UniProtKB/TrEMBL annotation:
Any one cellular-component term (Gene Ontology): plasma membrane
UniProt-listed Pfam families: CorA
Compartments, as annotated in UniProt: Cell membrane
Major localisation: membrane
Protein name stated in the entry: Magnesium transporter
Amino acid sequence: MARTRLYRGGSLVREDFPVHDISECLADPDSVVWLDLHQPGREVLDRVGQAFGIHELALEDAGKEGQRPKIDRYHAHEFLSAYGVAMDERSGELVTSELAVFVTPQALITVRKDDGIDMGDVLARWDDAPELTAQGVGFLLHGLLDHLVDGYFVAVQQLDDNIEGLEDLLFSEGPRVVRDVQRRAYELRKSLVGFRRVVLPMREVINTLMRPTLHVVTEPLMPYYQDVYDHVLRATEWTESLRDLVGSVMETNLAVQANRMNEIMKQVTSWAAIIAVPTAITGFYGQNLPYPGFDDHVGLLTSSALIVVITVLLFFAFKRQDWL
C-alpha cells in the first residue's frame, strides 16, 4: 500500500496519484513529493531506492525491524529511524511502532512497518499550516516529527497516571495487594525502560536536523523545530523522573512489607506469651506430687484464677505497647 502527495510552489496540487508518476513530478524543481509505504517488501524498497538514489545501507536498515532511533547522512539523502508510541488500554503496556524516513531535497519517503502510526493526523497537521508548505521537505518532516513527539507526551502522561494509581495501592490492605503492587511496578518499570530507549535518542536526531550544514531546516522553520526539540527534552526529563519514582515505589513496597512483617511477628510473639501462661500453670498443677490444693477443688479454682488473671494482665500490657 502506498500514499502520495505532490506540492508545487507551496500548494498541494495532487494526492494519491500512481507511484510511477513520481519521476515525472520531480522533473519540476519546485515540486515536493511525499511517498508513504506501508510494510513494503524488499523488491519495492529496491525500486524506490533506484528511483530516488537511496543508499543500499539505508534501504537495508529500512527493511529491518528493531533499529535504534537515529539519523544517518548520505551523499544524496538522509535516513531517519524513529518510533511512535502508545499505551495499550487493556493491558497497560507500551506499544511502539517503527518508522523509517528518507529525506531527499525534493521528497519525503516514509516506510511504516505496522499500523501503529496514524498518518491521518500527520496529514491534518500539514493541511492546517498551508503558509509553511513553501518550505518544502523540511515542513513535511516537521509535521511528522511533531506528531511523534506529541504521542510521547500522551504516553508519558498515561504512565504518570498509572504510577499514581500504584502509589494509592501501595498502602492499601488486602491479601493480594503486595503481589499486585510488585507485578504492576515491574510492568511500569519495563514500559519506562522501553519508552526511554525511544525518547532519549530523539534529542540527538532533532538536534542534528537543525544543523545548518544539513540544509533540511530553513530559517522560517527553525522556531518550529526548536519547539519540537524542547518537547523532546521535556518528555525525556519526565521519563527520568518517573523512572526514579517507580524505583522509590518499589523500595517503599519492600519497606512496607518489612513493617508489616514486624507487626505480624509482634502479634504472634504476644499471643505466644499469653498462651504460654495457661500452659505453664496447667503443667505445674499437673505434676504427680502433693502441693497446696492437691486432690482438692481449691487447687482447680486457684489454677483457673491464675490463668485468667495473668492472661488478662498480659493482654492489656501488650495492647498498651501496641503489640496487639
